[in-house]
Amino acid sequence: MAKKEPSKKHSEVLENTVQAFKNAFDNHIHHSLARDEHTVTKHEKFLAVAYAVRDRLIDRWIKTQETYYEKDVKRVYYLSLEFLIGRTLGNSVLNLDVESAVEEAVAELGMTLEELREEEVDAGLGNGGLGRLAACFLDSMATLELPATGMGIRYEYGMFNQKIKDGQQEELPDNWLRLPNPWEIARPANAIKVPFGGYVVTWTDDKGKLRNRWETKDYVLALPYDTPIPGYRNNTVNNLRLWSAQSADEFGLAYFNNGDYLAAVQDMELSETISKVLYPNDSSVNGKILRLRQQYFLCAASLQDIVRRFKKLHDGEWKLFPDKVAIQLNDTHPAISIAELMRILLDDEGLEWDEAWDIVTRTFAYTNHTLMPEALEKWPVSFFEKLLPRHLQIIYEINARFLAKVSLKWPGDTARLSRMSLIQEGGEKMIRMAYLSIVGSYAVNGVAALHSDLLKTSLFKDFYEFWPEKFNNKTNGVTPRRWVRKANPAMSALVSSKIGDNWVKDFSEIKKLEKFAEDAKFRKEFMAVKLENKKRLAAYLKQTQNVDVNVNTLFDIQVKRIHEYKRQLLNILHVIHLYLQIKDGKKVTPRTVMIGGKSAPGYWMAKQIIRLANAVGAIIDSDPDCKGKLQMIFLENYRVSFAEKIIPAADLSEQISTSGTEASGTGNMKFAMNGALTIGTLDGANVEMREEIGADNFFLFGLTVEEVQELLAKGYRPRDFYEKDDDLRRVLDLINSGFFCPDHPETFRPIVEKLLSSDPFLLLADFRSYVECQEKVAKAYADKDKWAKMAILNAARMGKFSSDRTIEQYAKEIWQTKACPISIK
Ligand code: CGF
C-alpha cells in the first residue's frame, strides 16, 4: 500500500500583482461561474472580481482564527440584531491595499472598479444608526487587530426598498439574496439546534439537590454563514457570523410517512420564517412574538457557539470564562443572552447559582442607544411562558435576588422596589429588558456624553444610584475608511497630498489639515472637490430619479430615518417659509434642499411627513418664481451606498432633533468629516462635535435640554408661538389651506392640528430660532471664501469621531482586550 503523504498545512498566500488578479478573474469566470468572455454578464464580472478578492481575504482569515486559537486570546463577541454593512467590494480592496492592482486588472474586463461596485447590492441588514454603528465597529475592531466576532441574523429580506409613488412611500421587499452573495461562506457543519417552547422538569441530582431541565420537541436549526471582515492594511481578518434558520426536522418524516407531504413542507417553512425578514422599526419596538423568536434564536445559537469555543481550550475551567470572553449587547435586543448563559451554566454544566451569576455578570456589557420610551423593550411574561419557560424562571430568580439587595440598601422603599423590578406589574405583566441588561452586565454605556448623562439622571436614575460604577460613556464614531477615504476619493487624495495618508489609519492626524484653512489655494482646491462631488450626486439623481439640480446652489441635506423627533417637518416648515419669502419678492440664497430616509411602514405620521415633503417639492418645482432659487427633492430609497454619494456632496448638514431626543447620531459625524457645515441643536453628539469644531464653525439653534424640560414642566402651549409669530402662522395656514394638495385639501391638516395641539417635539418653540439660524447660514454661504475656511476646519477637527477611537475605549475600559497582530509568511 502506498504510504500516506504527511498532511500539509495550507500556508500559501496568494499574490496581489495585476497579473495574478487577471488570472484570478479569468479563472473565476470559467470555473466558478461557468462562463466565457462572450456570455459573462456585468454582474458576473463583479462576482469574479469579488471571488478573487475574497480568495485573498481567506488566507488571512484562516491565519487570524488560527492565531487567536493558538494564543488563547480574550475574545469579544459583538451581539447585534442588525449589521448594516452596505457594499463590501470597495472596502475590502481598500483594506487589503490592492486598489491599484485591482483597478488595473479590472480594465482588462472593460470596466472600472467604480462601475463594478455599482453592481453590488447593499447588505441592508439594519434599520439605521444602530446597525450601521455595528458595521463601523467591525471595521475598527479588525483595524485595531482586536480578536472580535460579530454575531447576528442572516435575514433573507433586509431593510425594505422604498419607492415614492404619487409622492408617497411604498415598501418593496429587499430580496438581496436573489443574486449570489460572494462574501459569505456557509458552514452547515457548525449548525446549532435552538429549542423553543416545551416545559421545565425538576429533578434531584446525586447530591440530593434540586435541578432543572428544559425539555421540548420544538427545535430550529441555526446555520452559520461567515463573512470575512478585514482590517485596514494589516493581516487581521475577523469574522461576522450570521445565523440562518432552517427546519430541524428531518423533513417531517412522520407526516411524510402518512402521505402528508405538504404539511411537512409547511412545518419546515414555519421554522425558517425566523430569519426571513428584518423588522423595519428604528426607535420603536415591535411586540410580535416572531421578533422574540428572532432574538432568542440569535442568543441561543451565539451562546452555544461561544461556549463550545471556550470549552475547546478550557473545559471545566468556568472561572476563566470572563477572562476569555466579553459579550457586548448592542441594545437590549440580545438581552436574553444573560438568561441563556445562566441556563447553560446551571442546567447543562451543573454550576451553582452564585458561581454562575458571578461569571455572567463579569461577561456581559450593555450599550443603550435611546431614551425614547417607545423604543424600550418590554416583553409580555405570557410570551416567555409559551416560548422560553426556563428563561422566565431564571429571570424571576434574578429579580428576586436583585430586589432583596435593593431593599437592603433602601429598607421599606416599596415604590423604588416596584420601579426597579425587572417585572412591570399592573396590567399585563411585562419583562423590562433594559433592566435585565443592567442587572446582568458589569458595564452600561450611552453613546454620547449628553446621552450617557441623561441615562444617569432620568431613565436609569435608580440603577445609577445603586451601581454608579457600572455607568460610563462611549461616544459613537464612524469609520474614516468607508465614510471619507472610500466615499470621497477626491477629497482624500487632496488631503493626502498635503498631510500624507496615515490619517486613514490614525484619524487624529486629520488635525494636520487645520493649517491649510489659511491657505487660499487649498481653499479653492477643497471647494473644487466639493463641486465635483455635487456634480457626481447631480448626475446620479438625474439617472435614478430623473431630476435636474443646480450644483451652484447651497446643498442643504437631511438624510436619516423619518421620525417626528428628528424633525424633518421643521426643515419642511423652513422651506415653505423660504417659498413665501420668494413669493414676497425677497432675495434668498439659492438652495437645493434634499430630504431622504425611510419611515417604518406602520408609522402614519412619518409617512405624512414624506408625503408633505414631496408635495411641497412639487409645488416649488412648478413655480417659475422659484427657478434657480429654491428646490426641494425627496431622495428615494436612502441606504448605505446612496449615503456614500450624498454625504460628500453636502454643503449643509441638518441635525435638528429636539434636544434630549437623539442619543448620538452618526450621520452628523459623516457630514462634518466630508466638509459640510452643521446646522444643529445641542443634542446627542452634536454637543461634542461643536466643542471640537469650535462654536464659530457650527450653526447652533434651539432650546437646550434644560429649556425643553422647563417649558414642558410649565405647560407648553404651541398655539402661543403660532399666534405671536407671523411667519410661522403664514406657513401653517398655507399647509392647512390645502395649497399643497389641492385635490384633497384636507390631506395635511392632521399635521397642523398635531403641531397646534400638542407638538411633542417642540417644533413651534424652535421655529424662530431655526429660521434665524438659517439666515446666518445663507449669509455665510454667500461669502465663499469664509465658507471654505469653515468647511476645512470642520473636516480637520473631526479626529475624535473615528470609530477607532470609540473601539479603543471599549477595548480598554470595558472589554479588557488587547490587540493580537497577525503575521503571514
Ligand atoms: O442608534 C439610534 C438609531 N436610531 O439607530 N438608536 N437606536 N435605537 C439612535 O437614535 C442614534 O442617535 C444613535 O446614533 C444610533 C447608534 O448609537
TrEMBL record:
Alphabetical list of PROSITE patterns matching this protein: PHOSPHORYLASE
Q: State the UniProt keywords alphabetically.
A: Carbohydrate metabolism, Glycogen metabolism, Glycosyltransferase, Pyridoxal phosphate, Transferase
Q: Which GO terms describe its biological process?
A: glycogen catabolic process
- Top-tier EC class: transferase
Q: Does the keyword Ligase apply?
A: no
Q: What does this protein do?
A: Allosteric enzyme that catalyzes the rate-limiting step in glycogen catabolism, the phosphorolytic cleavage of glycogen to produce glucose-1-phosphate, and plays a central role in maintaining cellular and organismal glucose homeostasis. Phosphorylase is an important allosteric enzyme in carbohydrate metabolism. Enzymes from different sources differ in their regulatory mechanisms and in their natural substrates. However, all known phosphorylases share catalytic and structural properties.
PANTHER family in alphabetical order: GLYCOGEN PHOSPHORYLASE, GLYCOGEN PHOSPHORYLASE, LIVER FORM
Q: What is this protein called?
A: Alpha-1,4 glucan phosphorylase
